[in-house]
């Protein structure tokens, strides 16, 4: 990130990620004195009417942006999606003993690992052979309707595998649970298909420190007696403003500013933008005659996390990353577990960022044939 | 908090709380572009060298401010002290079945309630008769050295009861665990007496979203096999930069700014200030001939959370709180569970704030005899 202050920066971080300049500017303007209150949002009691108005507005904007039905609760929790990996079985295992997971990458694998601490996990499929580059034909999935729920990760941040046509009919009658951390806000959600949707805010919705958890009302209240208090959705639902204890107030506030900004643009804008960014980048990669490669089966390519190799050559990739950084294209390194490069293009990434990346990729290829 | 922008505000919130103006100003100045990086701290990957430098500096300043020995790990967790209520028994129960708790107010009561989900809790004493206005003679405590640890809350935020001379000799040989959320940074800590010290940052150290947990190295690695991943100190200790998953980056950054500020003042400054603020306020209350009252036995009165009644008259208290707010003395309402008033005076509260409060209390008494 050592670049001159004048240079335009495009931040392709997989999270925490880019936020709109307007949102950061508003946070900056309001830092010392929020709306004439004389105090910073960071200094407000979470029980004050000022902070309650901030949290309520953030929830309202989230609901409107994504059209969340009234019979779903929306929570702003701490601990990220990883905390929900544990909280989900504690809350909705009920009197069942088994849970159904499909593993299509690193995050769904970690989610399942947590569930194993409480229940028998039935694997719908595990793609060790393909190294997480596809989703198998749903006809071959091992679906066990005796399980308390079916869990999947809608978009795998590290492997760049996204469900673009989840086969809802296959899990009909089961409670469907989905981690949407890295693609929430990029398309509509058909809520009535889901029991629980959760998403760390720090990719598409706000800064780190908030995990938005949406739960269908009837699933609340089935928690195990030994459920740790921070996991207990019922305790939070029944607490004033749904905060049992002090939440991450400032991250909720900035998430709220960003949700208001997103609402003003509309969900369709973000969906179109996600498609446009991803198409441009995959088209360029696929036309590069193997210079750049993405290993994922086209149908399941992520629109937000685009891993790619440069001639499958680690030395060349190191050079690519260093030169990209010099021209303000930052955080393009792939996750340490898979290597290579990755362009994460979340909601706040303008199309110009992807254009600049493609221009750089072209130039780099010419200079390093 | 509806006050004019010109008016000086003194924020007596029990948390989240007042922060130094210098710290907020620095955060404001750096909001759009941290140290020439071209990005906001909120946009940085938690694995970037920039954010790692921020987190490492925050830990270094905390260690220096409080003189933390090398054989203790310092963590910046999410979930507040409430998450540690659960995490502590998961991590250090080991092969024991019992844990020893002393209940001196609402927070130690909640901590014990969480421990009961995993272990048999032995109560050292429970002051239901006194409604949490004292600490009993340690000679009468029920101490069970077969327990995995002894837990106490060093300062009860709601009831205003503080341990000012913890009887370490009584629990010798046991692992001592203390919640210091509401008085950390107000005096030195004799680390070698402790196994675990934890504190939500949002009172004395920074904004909400961070809980600082200090653990003696040898206590890490005894976690139960079913420990949820976010509770598992070993997983975090062994992760890069001690972050298994995305932490609350921005709250850690602001906590770091504040710790650097505190270090420049020195711990003695805060200890003297805490004593001076508390003495002035208790002296005034005690000299008010029963107009203002604090129910706590003088020896155990909190230096940071000072609950008081106004003629034990709820109507008069409502008037007191409304008039105080008008002159910029905000968040003086007592916790909903105990009522009355409460002045929380954390590290960033200048002595002038307490002087202004005492002046107001005098005037109010004159006008409402």
Defining key terms:
14 strands, alpha/beta, 9 helices, 369 residues, Aspartate Aminotransferase, domain 1
Q: How does this model look, in words?
A:
The structure is a homodimer of 369-residue chains. In chain A, 34% of the residues lie in helices and 16% in strands. The first copy, chain A, has nine helices and 14 strands. In chain A, the strands form four sheets. In chain A, strands 2-10-9-8-5-3-4 form a seven-stranded mixed beta sheet. In chain A, strands 11-12-14 form a three-stranded antiparallel beta sheet. In chain A, α2 packs parallel to α6. The relative contact order of chain A is 0.17.
Q: Average pLDDT of chain A, to the nearest integer?
A: 96
Most extensive interface between two protein chains, with residue counts: A-B, 73 and 73 residues
- Tell me the overall shape of chain A: globular
- CATH H level of the largest domain in chain A: which superfamily? Type I PLP-dependent aspartate aminotransferase-like (Major domain)
Strand order of the largest sheet of chain A: 2-10-9-8-5-3-4
How many angstroms does the end-to-end distance of chain A come to? 27 Å
Main sheet overview of chain A: 7 strands, mixed
Question: Which CATH architecture of the largest domain in chain A is right?
Answer: 3-Layer(aba) Sandwich
- Taking pLDDT < 50 over at least 5 consecutive residues as the criterion, the unreliable ranges of chain A are 1-5
Oligomer: homodimer
The number of domains of chain A: 2
Structural class of chain A: alpha/beta
Counting DSSP H or I runs of 4 or more residues, the number of helices of chain A is 9
CATH fold category name of the largest domain in chain A: Aspartate Aminotransferase, domain 2
The helix content of chain A is 25-40%
What Rg of chain A, in angstroms, do the CA atoms define? 21 Å
- Order of SSEs of chain A, N→C? EHHEHEHEEEEEEEHHHEEHEEH
The proportion of strand residues of chain A reads 15-25%
Number of strands of chain A: 14
CATH class of the largest domain in chain A: Alpha Beta
């Amino acid at each position: 990130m050592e670049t001159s202050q004048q240079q335009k920066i495009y931040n392709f971080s997989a999270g925490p990620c880019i936020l709109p300049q307007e949102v950061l500017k508003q946070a900056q303007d309001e830092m010392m004195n929020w709306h004439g209150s004389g105090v910073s949002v960071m200094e407000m009691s979470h029980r004050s009417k000022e902070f309650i108005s901030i949290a309520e507005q953030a929830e309202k904007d989230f609901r409107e942006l994504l059209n969340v039905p009234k019979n779903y609760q929306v929570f702003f929790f701490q601990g990220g999606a990883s905390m929900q990996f544990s909280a989900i079985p504690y809350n909705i295992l009920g009197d069942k003993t088994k849970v159904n997971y499909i593993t299509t990458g690193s995050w769904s694998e970690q989610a399942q690992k947590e569930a194993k601490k409480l229940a028998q996990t039935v694997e719908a499929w595990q793609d060790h052979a393909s190294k997480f580059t596809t989703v198998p034909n749903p006809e071959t999935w091992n679906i066990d309707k005796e399980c308390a729920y079916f869990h999947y990760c809608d978009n795998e941040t590290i492997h760049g595998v996204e469900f673009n046509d989840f086969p809802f009919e296959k899990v009909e009658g089961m409670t469907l649970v989905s981690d949407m951390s890295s693609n929430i806000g990029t398309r509509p959600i058909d809520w009535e298909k889901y029991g629980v949707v959760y998403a760390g805010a720090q990719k598409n919705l706000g800064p780190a420190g908030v995990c938005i958890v949406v739960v269908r009302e009837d699933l609340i209240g089935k928690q195990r007696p030994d459920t740790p208090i921070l996991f207990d959705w019922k305790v939070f639902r029944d607490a004033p403003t749904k905060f049992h204890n002090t939440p991450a107030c400032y991250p909720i506030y900035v998430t709220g500013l960003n949700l208001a900004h997103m609402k003003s643009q509309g969900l369709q804008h973000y969906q179109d933008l996600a498609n446009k960014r991803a198409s441009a980048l995959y088209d360029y990669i696929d036309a590069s005659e193997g210079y750049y490669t993405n290993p994922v089966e086209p149908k399941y390519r992520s629109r937000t996390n685009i891993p790619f190799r440069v001639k499958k050559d680690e030395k060349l990739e190191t050079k690519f990353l260093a030169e990209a950084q010099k021209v303000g294209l930052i955080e393009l390194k792939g996750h340490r577990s898979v290597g290579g490069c990755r362009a994460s293009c979340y909601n706040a990434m303008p199309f110009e960022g992807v254009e600049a990346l493609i221009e750089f990729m072209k130039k780099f290829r010419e200079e390093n044939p």
